[in-house]
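Input (structure):
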């Protein structure tokens, strides 16, 4: 390859043959060498078809897959989404988003499939990457690394110790590398004062030096901030970027003051004058070519364009299934849910809240947004479900009117919700129409609150609500999925992938921790992220991590017969379903490390989602790997921690049913 050909491969903008393209990143083909073009697009909720709305499925968001606790489902989710990318001619899917939700108000928590726990992230990223890449589409886990806040995301430095970095945040990306992810996106923020995309410690050192990552690193859209440092630090591709700004033809090469071309011509000059050895450039090109060959891009010319309609009924059905699998019923007094349409015949149902109908929220904004061809609101779904009931819809803002509507009805369904988008964190954890939910719950004790949320939220209605069903961002099939659960066609089988707090900033972040002071954010909470903090500080949240209630009943599942085999490090337990119907349980395994290891009280190290027939029992079993019983040292190097471990099996981090010990 000539130097110019190599330089041409390490950046991409969004023009195709001199014209704007809908792919958000595009690297032209090199016909002389049969190298195919690289067509890249957002993102984690489906193909973001900016110019062709309605041509791709709006899937539930990444956080929904965290709430589903189901690796097979996550694999299928990735496979189906990527089939749509392939159908639109894309080579790379920007996703999954995998950052651990350190900050409850984080603006992009909805995009991330880790929730607040790296173990969920490790399982999720592996399944999702394999699913995506099974379709001949390269996965692109993002945003590497510590892009854990959106406020000030282009400048803030996440300052962190090696152990916390390894255990909580890097371990997820590492699992993506182990699963064969062929690319990753480095983030806009800085890490320990160096820009993430030019960061020797995290890109060259950790990702390329200490994991099995064979792919290439491309930058988030303001992530490239230097030429030589980024090239030597491990960045392989600047996005967006081009060779030389061309004022006469800005389409061909953008000259964007906040995204200057650091690769392209400046990189060529750096190679020519020796400040970047050509071997370094060769390695970048090698990594990109390796990924293209591995995914089969040389053998299969792309078909389809961003405008191709890739939606199908099968995908709509699957989006609906994912939404029900992530639907998390956090309270269900007296088993009000499932409802019976027959019992509601001739009765009045009050539906309250703009998110129920007039202002439906199905997904987030920014690059994670997908405009669906259609959406199903909760209001529409209830009309379909209850043709012989009177549906009274209140979409105003007055709590007294909401209370009146609820009081006059036999049943009230309030939908609370807020959206979120990249570039800013949420102002607080209060969702839209929360005051209406509080008022309705006060007026009618048969009030169900349905929650549409980008992450954690406050639930001041909870003492009065008959039931609260958390749907996260469920995607285009929202209303149908809500009805599937409310009327019991599907179990509510999601579990909380993040703690629901009692109040704002319950974890008492100082400004230095979040949002940071003078562009520095110090991760002084170390390993105490999410439930780890709550348990270490003996604080009971509103609803704990891992919590969720099956329609079989809150007390349906009885755990017994804990078996621990030290030699194979296998833990098993029996779960009986004593409930009133078949139900799905998510059994969770938490370890208590020996005190001297310095771990938080409990850490998740296994989960198993099982359907248990009414009156029957199932056995769940977990095998612990070396990594599961290891800690990282102050250099971030892992080793098995010998000693006596506590083993806890239960239905949330606060509902432990069986306890034993394991000697390592
Ligand atoms: C976002 C990325 C996205 C990129 C391209 C950036 O603003 O942070 O997640 O992939 O835009 O659209």
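Output (sequence):
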């Amino acid at each position: 390859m000539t130097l110019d050909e190599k330089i041409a491969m390490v950046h991409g903008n969004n023009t195709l043959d001199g014209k704007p393209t809908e792919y958000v990143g595009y690297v032209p083909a090199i016909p002389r060498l049969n190298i195919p073009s690289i067509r890249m697009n957002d993102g984690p909720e489906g193909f973001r078809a900016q110019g062709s709305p309605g041509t791709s499925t709006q899937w539930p968001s990444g956080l929904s897959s965290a709430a589903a606790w189901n690796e097979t489902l996550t694999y299928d989710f990735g496979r189906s989404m990527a089939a749509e990318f392939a159908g639109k001619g894309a080579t790379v899917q920007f996703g999954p988003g995998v950052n651990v939700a350190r900050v409850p108000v984080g603006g992009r928590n909805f995009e991330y499939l880790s929730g607040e726990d790296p173990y969920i992230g490790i399982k999720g990223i592996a399944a999702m990457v394999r699913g995506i890449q099974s379709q001949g589409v390269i996965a692109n886990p993002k945003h590497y690394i510590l892009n854990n806040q959106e406020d000030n995301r282009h400048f803030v430095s996440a300052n962190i110790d090696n152990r916390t970095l390894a255990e909580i945040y890097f371990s997820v990306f590492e699992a993506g590398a182990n699963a064969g992810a062929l690319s990753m996106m480095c983030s806009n923020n800085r890490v320990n004062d160096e820009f993430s995309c030019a960061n020797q410690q995290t890109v060259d050192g950790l990702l390329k030096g200490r994991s099995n990552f064979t792919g290439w690193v491309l930058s988030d859209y303001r992530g490239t901030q230097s030429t030589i440092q980024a090239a030597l630090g491990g960045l392989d591709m600047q996005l967006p970027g081009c060779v030389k700004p061309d004022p006469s033809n800005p389409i061909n090469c953008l000259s964007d003051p906040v995204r200057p071309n650091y690769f392209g011509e400046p990189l060529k000059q750096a190679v020519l004058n020796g400040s970047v050895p050509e071997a370094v450039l060769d390695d970048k090109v090698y990594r990109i070519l390796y990924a293209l060959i591995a995914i089969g891009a040389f053998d299969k010319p792309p078909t389809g364009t961003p405008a191709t309609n890739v939606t199908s009924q099968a995908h709509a059905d699957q989006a609906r299934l994912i939404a029900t699998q992530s639907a998390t019923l956090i309270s269900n007094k007296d088993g009000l849910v499932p409802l019976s349409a027959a019992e509601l015949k001739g009765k009045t149902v009050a539906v309250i809240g703009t998110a129920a109908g007039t202002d439906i929220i199905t997904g987030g904004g920014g690059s994670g947004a997908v405009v669906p061809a259609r959406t199903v609101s909760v209001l529409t779904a209830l009309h379909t479900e209850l043709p012989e009931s009177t549906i009274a819809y209140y979409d105003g803002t007055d709590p007294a009117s909401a209370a009146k509507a609820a009081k006059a009805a036999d049943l009230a369904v309030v939908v609370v919700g807020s959206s979120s988008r990249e570039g800013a964190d949420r102002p607080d954890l209060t969702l839209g129409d929360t005051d209406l939910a509080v008022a309705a719950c006060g007026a009618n004790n048969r009030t169900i609150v349905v929650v549409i949320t980008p992450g954690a939220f406050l639930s001041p209605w909870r003492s009065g609500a008959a039931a609260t069903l958390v749907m996260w961002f469920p995607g285009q099939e929202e209303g149908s999925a809500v009805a599937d659960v409310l009327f019991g066609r599907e179990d509510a089988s999601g579990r909380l992938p993040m703690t629901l707090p009692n109040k704002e900033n319950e974890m008492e972040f100082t400004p230095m921790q979040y949002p940071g002071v003078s562009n520095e954010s110090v991760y002084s909470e170390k390993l105490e992220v999410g439930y780890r903090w709550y348990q270490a500080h003996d604080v009971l949240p509103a609803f704990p991590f891992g919590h969720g209630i099956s329609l079989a009943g809150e007390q349906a599942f009885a755990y017994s017969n804990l078996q621990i085999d030290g030699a194979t490090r296998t833990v098993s337990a029996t779960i009986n379903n004593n409930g009133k119907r078949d139900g799905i349980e998510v059994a969770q395994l938490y370890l208590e490390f020996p005190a001297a290891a310095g771990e938080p009280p409990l850490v998740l190290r296994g989960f198993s989602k099982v359907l248990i027939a009414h009156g029957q029992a199932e056995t769940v079993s977990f095998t612990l790997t070396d990594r599961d019983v290891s800690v990282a040292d102050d250099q971030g190097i892992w080793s098995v921690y010998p000693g006596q471990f506590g083993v806890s099996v239960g239905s949330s981090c606060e509902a432990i049913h069986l306890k034993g010990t394991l000697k390592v």
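Notes: The mean pLDDT is 96. The first strand starts at residue 15 and ends at 16.
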